[in-house]
Amino acid sequence: MSYLNNLCLEVRDGNGGNGAMADIWGCANEASKLWAFNGNGPIRSDLGKCLDIVAANKGVGAGVNMVDYHDDWRAQQWRWDGSQIISKLSGLCLQISAANRDVGAAVEVWGRNGGGHQQWHPVV
After folding, report:
1. Domain ranges of the chain
2. pLDDT 10s digits, 7-17
3. If one looks up domain 8-118 in CATH, what number appears?
4. At 101, is the secondary structure helix, strand, or coil?
5. How is the chain split among helix, strand and coil, in percent rounded to 5?
6. Is this prediction's pTM over 0.70?
7. Which of 27, 87, 106, 118 has the greatest number of CB atoms lying within 10 Å of its CB?
């Protein structure tokens, strides 16, 4: 869940296919909004795909989508630092694009600045 707006990371439109984009939406007990992450490694959706940086782009603003898991793809490796989700590919963090508070806002990776749109906490 985002500290910015208390919305949850989701697989857009519940799309279970490779290439489905991730965005922000209201939290619910639905497969598109449920994730498994141990704090170091892949972030897996209950739809069966992993959070992935599109085309292994190391630049700021790179999009985030869902793809089958590949243990040798750094674009699917993340680490938790207590409030931010950091890409092991680039060292950039997962954020809500442009600090957009609205449902459906895109997520991307960006340089760490400590804003609420880059801070996350688990839903229990």
Report:
1. 8-118
2. 999 999 999 99
3. 2.80.10.50
4. coil
5. 15, 35, 50
6. yes
7. 118
